């Protein structure tokens, strides 16, 4: 009895090869077309920026390093850093509460995140600035008992305090979710392996879990810093002399609205670009040994 062994051809049909070649050709022409369109858009944009006299670039250069503008820029940076520090510390604590096995802590963390993510930051800023209306005095003491010390809310809640509270507490709600997502994204087997090597709970967290979680935490945290940096422009409603408020004060006197707004945009763009470079270096540091 003869056994017939089927033969398998390893050569692709000619029509398949021709189709693949034609597909690559069409893709290449598509790239050329997209590149040409982008080039034309870039040329039009540069032409609009350079030859449109309404921008008044001489005025932009005049006020770019104006002392009042630089002071406003410094205030913006300080507010952004302070709000992120408050947000990171409180957000990490809230993330730990949401991951806790103790139900009341989970409920408290969930309630905080829900409330502060639901209320717009501008409303929170105005609320904290007017806290004295609801709470004339802020005191420390025994609950339902004697007070040890108290302060006037109007003296304690200054525009700076209101800005840091409004921005920082709002950021904490978002950063809590970012930190929580990074921690639960680490495979449980990593923790088991660390325990099998004799690591303590803290060593497992600090040497195994956290370095891997940072790969997930850093990119959205950087985006949140950029968001809070731009969000500092909201503090102008409570008379904080940030970057936007400073240029508003100047163009309120000179009526040169567009050039002063360009000054503000230029500084925002520069700061965000520098921070983005630092964020990229930090991401590369925590991504060592990982294949992309």
TrEMBL record:
Q: Name a single GO cellular component.
A: ATP-binding cassette (ABC) transporter complex
SUPFAM superfamilies in alphabetical order: MetI-like (SSF161098)
Matching entries from InterPro entries are given as:
AA_ABC_transptr_permease_3TM (IPR010065), ArtM/GltK/GlnP/TcyL/YhdX-like (IPR043429), MetI-like (IPR000515), MetI-like_sf (IPR035906)
Q: Which Pfam families match?
A: BPD_transp_1
Q: List locations, semicolon-separated.
A: Cell membrane
The residues covered by the ABC transmembrane type-1 domain are: 73-276
Q: Where do the TM regions start and end? A: 32-50, 70-97, 257-278
Name one process (GO BP) from the record. Answer: amino acid transport
Protein family according to the UniProt entry: Belongs to the binding-protein-dependent transport system permease family.
Q: What is this protein called?
A: Polar amino acid transport system permease protein
């Amino acid at each position: 009895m003869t056994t017939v062994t089927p033969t398998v051809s390893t050569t692709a049909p000619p029509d398949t090869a021709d189709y693949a070649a034609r597909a690559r050709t069409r893709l290449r022409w598509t790239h050329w077309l997209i590149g040409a369109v982008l080039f034309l858009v870039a040329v039009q944009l540069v032409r609009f920026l350079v030859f449109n006299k309404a921008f008044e670039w001489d005025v932009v250069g005049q006020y770019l390093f104006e002392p009042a503008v630089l002071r406003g820029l410094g205030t913006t940076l300080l507010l952004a850093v302070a709000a992120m520090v408050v947000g990171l510390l409180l957000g990490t604590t809230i993330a730990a509460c949401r991951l806790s096995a103790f139900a009341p802590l989970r409920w408290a963390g969930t309630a905080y995140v829900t409330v502060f993510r639901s209320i717009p930051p501008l409303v929170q800023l105005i609320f904290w600035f007017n806290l004295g209306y609801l709470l004339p005095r802020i005191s420390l003491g025994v609950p339902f008992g004697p007070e040890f010390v108290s302060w006037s809310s109007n003296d304690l809640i200054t525009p700076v305090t209101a800005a840091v509270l409004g921005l920082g507490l709002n950021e904490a709600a978002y950063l809590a979710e970012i930190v929580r997502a990074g921690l639960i994204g680490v495979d449980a087997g990593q923790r088991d392996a660390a325990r099998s090597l004799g690591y303590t709970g803290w060593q497992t967290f600090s040497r195994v879990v956290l370095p891997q979680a940072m790969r997930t935490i850093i990119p959205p945290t950087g985006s949140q810093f950029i968001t809070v940096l731009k969000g500092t422009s909201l503090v102008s409603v409570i008379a904080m002399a940030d970057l936007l408020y400073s240029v508003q004060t100047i163009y309120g006197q000179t009526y040169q609205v567009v050039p002063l707004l360009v000054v503000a945009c230029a500084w925002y763009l520069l700061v965000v670009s520098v921070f983005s470079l630092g964020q990229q270096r930090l991401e590369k540091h925590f991504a060592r040994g990982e294949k992309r």
